[in-house]
Protein 1
Amino acid sequence: MTRRPPLLEIDDLSVTFRRRNSVTRAVDGVSYTVAPGEIVGVVGESGSGKSVTVLALMGLLPRRGVEVTGRVRYNGKDLLSLSEGAMAKLRGPEIAMVFQDPISSLNPVVPIGVQVAEVLLAHTRTNKSAAMAESVELLRRCGIPDPERRLKEYPHQLSGGMRQRALIAMALACKPKLLICDEPTTALDVTIQAQVLELLKELVTDAGTAMIMITHDLGVVAGLCDQVNVMYSGRIVEAAPRTELFGHPRHRYTHGLLASIPRLDAPRGEPLHPIPGTPRDTIAWSKACAFAPRCVHATDECVRPDIGLAALPDSPADHPVRCVHPAEVSHG
Amino acid sequence: MVDTDDLLVVEGLEVHFPIRSGVVVDRTVGHVKAVDGVDLRVPRGRTYGLVGESGCGKSTLGRALLRLEQPTAGTVTLDGVDVTRLKGEPLRRLRRRMQMVFQDPLASLDPRQSVQSLMIEPLRVHEPRPAAELVARAAEMLELVGMPRSALAKYPHEFSGGQRQRIGIARAMILNPELVIADEPVSALDVSVQAQVINLLEKLQQEFGLTYIVIAHDLAVVRHISDRVGVMYLGRIVEEADSDRLYAQPLHPYTIALMSAIPIPDPEVEDSRERILLRGDLPSPANPPSGCRFHTRCPYRQPTRCDDEVPRLRVIPGRPGHRVSCHYAEQILDGAVQPAASLVIEAAAG
């Protein structure tokens, strides 16, 4: 499958948080692209920088004490150099975002319908009654039963799955070309998660929306995403199309992670192979592989600086890995 | 039937919470039936897994077994002693035999107590001895869960989530309990750390012959650790079987849908399996549906019996130990009853 020209290109994006006496590089030289109709997954644990990357490109990080470098091109425009006003015009009709926790992203004292209509009123030429009618349609399309009644309800009256759907309806209100989902199903039960994922999948197929899916759940990525980026401690450590990534994980972190999680379809009684240590055991970002302190294959070479994200001789060119001692290619 | 090998026997357990209303006159206007008639048996040295989605009553059930919640009806028998009617000193003495591991160790460990103080607290309550002995025991216990002795002088916030959970486990184990109830023991942890804690729980079980009840929403974790699994829906167990049997062939429509909804980290499996979607959300446990409680969302719902006749949890003929509460379990097994086509998502075209 040849990839279409990308809608969004993130190139060497870095985010540094400066406080009085500490400097944290949350994102370090991240690059990836998203094309229309494509779902790009970003997997990583808490603190890996997967959310900060997209907050930076949306211009949602505070200005003070935060330094963002690199380039983000959206449809030919450089997002990082846009004014706040120009960026606000893009958010909604062009790029929309679905957050993890719907109860803290929705306004608790405004009815759901008004919150959805608000987006339409802000970005399109429409009047209030037309916007409300449109919200009913949106909520219905997002699988909310009896939307006319739900429109008047407040967020606390809805269940978790409903709230998440209302949030998706808001994000879809202006038919964005790029949808960024930050852990959209993490707060939901699995059966509700399946409903929401199905809805998102339909969207991409029907409207050709480009999507970034941020999650810690490898299972969600396996079923949904075309392209997967694995992040660890602020960097992409491995990137590949999904079948390649899950079939032949090469980075020791990805490899270890897949071996450590119990699978529903694997024979029972097989011992799990945990990764030692915790994600906090990293070495300073300026030096080498952040996973080395937890890696059983680490050698002195792993602490040399500038280990790049590069294609390996025995893997396809679209499967770059940032590892000195990659896992063997598995056969079968 | 009295089987002496069962450490824990639960019969007809109910926990109903009153819903109160009124400003001047406090009236009870209804009950939330969090646990509504649960029977289960856990043999000594085994692990029983309880799965279900949020609000199904699995945590309340776990708490009621330890008498952290007062059951409104039914009995819980630990090693022949009815826990539900004990009070005072006998209850206190029984409590040391059953301990709990909580989901969020940051919330369940007092932030202002050092690890040493946290660890010896249960010992001080249950077996007062000279302080030096208690500290030595605490250090020994920490070592067992893979923590250094130096941890004793630290406070909970100084540890990572996985380490805190180890402390929580050490604290539960320090009294040498027989029954340990673990409520979502790994779901608050980072993915790469979960396997460490699962392996630790298994190691401790082998070493001390512990009996576990593991409560979790993650079916893969429960399957890995449990010998027998019960699936809960709206306060009741809807299906129960040995772990392998249940996962190989679930028979209750809820279990079938739940399993098909779990994402598997393998694109080939994901593309080739079919998914059964459930409609809507969990009904309110204050006003559960009539008949089979699952009929409002059931993809296999039939025009007769489902809406008005309550199914019993019964053993399916030819499948020993496999209990299902569905009128049509046999028909689902032999394929005579199929899910509604509109709710089945076909496998993606290869």
Protein 2
Amino acid sequence: MYVAVKGGEAAIRATHDLVAQMRRGDPCVPELDTRQIREQMKLAVARVMNEGSLYDEDLAALALKQSQGDAVEAAFLMRAYRTTLPRFGSSAPLDTARMAIRRRISAAFKDLPGGQVLGPTYDYTHRLFDFALEAAGLTAAPAVTPGGAPLDESMPRVPDILGSEGLMEPERALPDDPAPCDVTREPAEFPIDRDGRLQMLARGDEGFLLGLAYSVQRGFGANHPFAGEIRMGETSVRYRPEDLGFEIDLGEITVTECQMINQFSGSKDAPPQFTRGYGFAFGHSERKAMSMAIVDRSLKCRDLGEAADYPAQKEEFVLYHCDTIEASGFVEHLKLPHYVDFQGELELIRKIRREHDERAAEPALFTPSEAAE
Amino acid sequence: MEQDDKQSGGGERAAWMSVLARASYDDLLAVAAAIDLPDAEIVKPAESGTLMIEARAGGSGRRFNAGEATVTRCIVRTGDRLGYSYALGRDKKKAVLAARLDLALQDDARRKEILAAVVEPLCAAQTERRQHASRSAAATKVEFFTLVRGDG
């Protein structure tokens, strides 16, 4: 039970000032500009947009500045701000096959139509410090010499290549292509369909999903995944305003997509084939998209008739606990005053204790032979 | 006028609206300075909101809600003709200017001039940016060779 507390206004005002002072740090050091965060902390910005479930790089940069770089607090600011905005509608489903590719790799197929494009990745770096970055002002980024020809405008998704042989579980639109459920409007109910699951995973905490994905790989799950494809780049957002009457292009967003491929030995309804897990994230967020794809596949166990023995296969466990804001809200609310609750508990334990002590002090009403039992 | 646009399914207008949506306010301001942009009455002041971004499972499967994005829109008018702007982000100044440009572009007498002065240079710059990004990515195109293992 929550009981309001009063007072503390002056102390709370002072803590707001103190946090502003801490946020600013040493005033001799130049203050961060949110544009610097947006441009130079892009991966942090992407994480905040994902877990805040709102694509806006400027807002995510501001959130990071305001929260001193705390990704969870920053995502909370995004979610809170989102609730103040009207929603105009829903976009047409993104067409990621026509993404302007900046990175696209497959760990399963070497020779791909369209090619393997490493793009900007830390995969092949040595994880050694580059101390030149510490010396501010001296680091003009090396310019990439562009390749001769641009990449193909449309690249097939890797799992679709195998799909033509019937060896890959297909991903097809539902009949009549219905609008998806929206867990921000209707609370999730279990068992949940894949649209709700993917939405919850897309908003989910990267660390939690990463840990679950790792558990699947280590044997707490039945899947051995291959990274069928990871692609990252810019995708057009298309929308049909009702009053305008035709579809328009509102600009583009950066997204990361991951297709995991898993072996499946077949069931009484489905032949042996590869099955798929799908990961989707705003910005360049590969670790998140990969983790999501592994967990999505793991949660397909019900549909595929697999036993759900492991944590990553239990959808209520995974989906109810993957939300950064809900999880941190519930854990961190323990910091707030619970004085009345605790007073009640204290009185209860005193009473029990008193009764216990009284019982111990009472003269024995039973015979020693009974006590021995 | 509006009716014509609906029947055309967007067509040329959808194409210029896309170019305007992808431009920044500064880009629009720079090119709009070159033309005589008529004043317009504000029908719906610039307003920021969100659009739920939909995607598809596996890229091609059932629809799902991936998360929202900020969007700003504005509607302006001259007579019975309406100028619209819808773009990602929260730039209200850009929304008003883009809506006025959309309105001006619907004037048959001025379309050719404004397309040439405003839309085409923006479109060329956007294409150039896209091509450059694509060619930079192409520089990282890789050929992996698998090595034949010993008798396994």
